[in-house]
Amino acid sequence: MSPNSTLWQTILQDLEKLYNEETYNELFLPVTSTFKDQNGLLTMVVANEFLKNRINKLYIAKINELATKYSSTPVRLKFVSQEEVIEEPVADRKLTIDYRQGNLNSTYTFDSFVVGKSNMFAFRMAMKVADQPGAVANPFYIFGDVGLGKTHLMQAIGNYILDNDVEKRILYVKADNFIEDFVSLLSRNKNKTEEFNAKYKDIDVILVDDIQIMANASKTQMEFFKLFDYLYLNNKQIVITSDKPASQLTNIMPRLTTRFEAGLSVDIQIPELEHRISILKRKTATLDANLEVGEDILTFIASQFAANIREMEGALIRLISYAQTFNLEITMNVVEEALGAVLKTKKKTNDLNENNYDKIQSIVADYFQVSLPDLIGKKRHAKFTLPRHIAMYLIKLKYNIPYKTIGSLFNDRDHSTVLSACEKVERDMRMDSNLKFAVDSIVKKIDSPSLKW
Ligand code: ADP
Ligand code: MG
């Protein structure tokens, strides 16, 4: 909910107490949308002239009295009918829809964002940016894998700024919508240019989500570059999200990426198990404050959905609605019934493309009969170093992630250690058929589907 619809909801609670049920249900309850919000004047839409006149004649004074009581800034409400809204000039209507109400998801706040090691820095910096838009870090660039909270954090910045100042114009735009707007700008007349400028330039904060989508769209990038410079020079806060660091954005023009790099970049990593459990707890509480889901169950879900919070939340929601529909207490059996299918499909996709680094590590450890801690650890005995090198080699082979990242999976070894381990295994395999055989057998094991999930 935008702050203004929150204001209306608060007013509604009082109206319910003040007037009889019939009046309340007929007149006030159906008013759900704030049409326009300009300089403290909120325009609310009602279904027809008749309702509008009744409210404006009989109740407007009381409503405005309540609005003043509940709002920290001067505010006044005005009621218009649906017909009048349609007669509004197009440009006017478009703008009000494009930002503020309806543009930000009001549940994406700092409050609802659970902080842990994986997102702590990103969170703290986002708070600072929201506190002093345009002054701390511009642009503010958030990157990380899908489903880890980039959009949430970005919109939290917008919601926070808006909560402190309803006058601020915040524009949230997905990069693909920017492309669409730009394409329609090209294909139409000059009226569109004005609309485009009004939408994108007459703002205080721009939030551009998933910038990597602009790859290859070079004309759009050029337009975005001009906009970026305009906003930047006017000290407007720019927030950008992406699935990769700016330096790795291929097919985006260097003059843009260097500008991104000139601001502040923060990344969001995969949250640790405990952190994921906290997120599930918070989510459970928002879904149903009275609902208790056991720790073991939350732990199970958190361990099954490590890499994507959106999927993890999806599983929780599915489980809860399943239990509610059939009126069941949430036990492990119910979890299996509700999520069995999801977990099985997930298992399949995991086998195909997810980063099961630890699975490789355990299979290698198993094959050579060493413990996992020894495989990952620092012991230098050949009994451990050979399997360790093979595991590094196989992770590189399967997932082609940076040597440095592989090093972080083996007790923080550095890039060059991993690189030489991988090269050694590759070289030795050519001369040593036993080694080749061992590595091939391990690869088969890694590739074979296992029955358990
Ligand atoms: P991204 O944009 O990185 O793909 P989203 O911001 O859409 O990810 O997040 C996916 C879902 O997970 C959203 O519902 C979001 O609210 C939730 N989520 C992600 N991170 C957190 C967090 N730290 N605390 C609470 N919810 C989170
Ligand atoms: Mg997103």
Strand content: 5-15%
Uncertain runs: 87-102
The structure class reads alpha/beta
Order of strands, main sheet, comes to: 5-6-7-4-8
DSSP helical segment count: 21
What separation lies between the terminal Cα atoms? 39 Å
Shape: globular
- Note the run of SSEs as H and E: HHEEHEHHHEHEHHEHEHEHHHHHHHHHH
Number of distinct beta strands: 8
Please give the largest β-sheet. 5 strands, parallel
pLDDT averaged residue by residue: 85
Rg result: 28 Å
Q: Into which percent range does the helicity of residues fall?
A: 55-70%
Q: Could you explain the architecture of this structure?
A:
The protein is 61% helix and 9% strand. It has 21 helices and 8 strands. The protein has a 5-stranded parallel beta sheet, with helices on both faces. Mean pLDDT is 85; it is low at 87-102. Residues 112-114, 119, 144, 146-152, 279, 309-310, 313 line the site of adenosine-5'-diphosphate.
Name its key features:
binds magnesium ion; alpha/beta; 453 residues; 61% helix; binds adenosine-5'-diphosphate; globular; five-stranded parallel sheet
